[in-house]
Design a protein that fits this description.
The chain is an alpha/beta fold and 279 residues long. It is built from 7 helices and 15 strands. The two termini are 27 Å apart. The structure holds arginine (ARG). The site of arginine (ARG) has 16 residues, from loops. Arginine binds next to loops. This is Amidinotransferase.
Amino acid sequence: MSVLPVSEQGLGERTAQQRRYLMCRPEYFAVTYAINPWMDPAAGADAGKAVAQWEELRATYLTLGHEVSLIDPVEGLPDMVFAANGALTVGGRAYGARFTYPERQAEGPTYTEWLRRNGYAEVLDAEHTNEGEGDFLALDNMILAGTGFRTEIAAHQEAQEFLGRPVVTLRLVDPRFYHLDTALCTLDGENVAYYPAAFSPGSRAVLAQLFPNAILAAERDAAVLGLNAVCDGRNVIVNAEASDLISAFQHHGYNPVPVDLSELRKAGGGPKCCTLELR
Ligand code: ARG
């Protein structure tokens, strides 16, 4: 791997931590309904191309030394490839998703059943609407939680009570960035990158206070879902089109690993959406 530029803040070389991810091959991927502004059923999408791009993402994780588990795709659930939405796992507990739209509702129990069968003894079937890691992003000392389009604030409270970690509510205001993970990504357990205009003024102030050293993305990088990135503390798997954001990651001492998930973006997803972290 290439030599990393030392970050501006003199933090030196970043270290990667091995992660466990859950993914779902997009065998039945399609754009047959529209539940976010990225989706156009008239334009459709190519499942074969989506599978090829997804395989590259999976291979990238394996090359970087991460573990990838697979959940079987279900016919008739075209968005199931977006595994991040299936749950939020923290400290060996899994908080299950309860999807907003009927088109995706069957995914919730499918993911929680997988988690129960694969080592999670404590799995909560949520009472309140929430879309897992689409709207919940865990840092070392807190969980950031989006609301405004999908996940209800009551779910933020439910997750805090079940997981025993502080949950910070952030309000999303731009329908293109309907999930928190389309507008913000975690970097090293303490820092984040985000697109400020996706958040309400109050939430922007909260983010500025919590993360004075955050990487701020410009609109054109956010608009190719550049913030839907996955970071292991050092490597950042990021949509290849987000060129200024990629430079910013590099400048801050991270190692950007560009991927092409353009076919999955037709449903409003990127690398992070395809990836549920198993903690
Ligand atoms: N079409 C899916 C939806 O609108 C995309 C989900 C993307 N996932 C994510 N974590 N942002 O629900």
